[in-house]
């Protein structure tokens, strides 16, 4: 059998970067210890260890205020599911999307070359060198499109994990992030602040894109942290919201945002939820450009702070607003005030949920031999 090697290609054009080139990936601990990421090169194609699997990937909050494109975290309880099974009706080495369910399935294509889940699944199949088996995939969307909760990343993460696990879990989380990045690159831009936490869980800092280097920021187990997620009935496509960003940033704002991002990381590592919230609320570069595009967002932020939230900002590209607090009951009260503000100031109906940090990331939730 011919040896199958897969080497990722980095295309950074979608993030206003040029001269893409292949490169290694590093995963670092918070102490910044680095180890090289080796792309697997196997002469033996793995066999399926299950006939079908079911996976889940959580919603994510990207940017976290001042951390545009380099900070994100996963939140529990909401996300996308993928069911994957070996299908003799599908051509060997290929994948078919059998069905898409959820709030607006008609808005998503079943062409795996253009569907987030399909793109990531294909990349994992390439990494594993799958040529003898065909697969069918069902995508269950639990996240609305264009919500600012990492909808595309959740689909990609769930699919990547499903393909990996049906063949015995040969690939690492970091390799699966690369597969998810190929999907994100095609549909919303080359940024890992959704797909990395969706796959790895917890808080993730992208220290570098070229080469890709990920830092896992460990939030203390004993600390209480709740995310108040308020989603209005309004779609904010990522590409449109990225187009609103400034082409240049002045030095004062650059220094300010860097200091707030540092404070945010310190808050995560020490479990200082109040400090974390204060830093999250302090972006002077991205949020000021995006908030006016979401009806009522500025009033929603004020309402959250007045109701006792430690901080509030736009989740990802929006329109979801995210506030931080250390109590679930307080979070529910804050969410109610934010929903009222979306209606009063933006004429937008909205819904609120209160969720904890998802520390696990994408995982298998069912299998059949």
UniProtKB/TrEMBL annotation:
Pathway: Amino-acid biosynthesis; L-threonine biosynthesis; L-threonine from L-aspartate: step 4/5. It is an enzyme of class 2 (transferase). GO terms for biological process: threonine biosynthetic process. Keywords: Amino-acid biosynthesis, ATP-binding, Kinase, Nucleotide-binding, Threonine biosynthesis, Transferase. It catalyses: L-homoserine + ATP = O-phospho-L-homoserine + ADP + H(+). Residues 266-340 form the GHMP kinase C-terminal domain. Residues 122-202 form the GHMP kinase N-terminal domain. It comes from the Eukaryota. GO terms for molecular function: ATP binding; homoserine kinase activity. Its EC number is 2.7.1.39. Belongs to the GHMP kinase family. Homoserine kinase subfamily. This is Homoserine kinase.
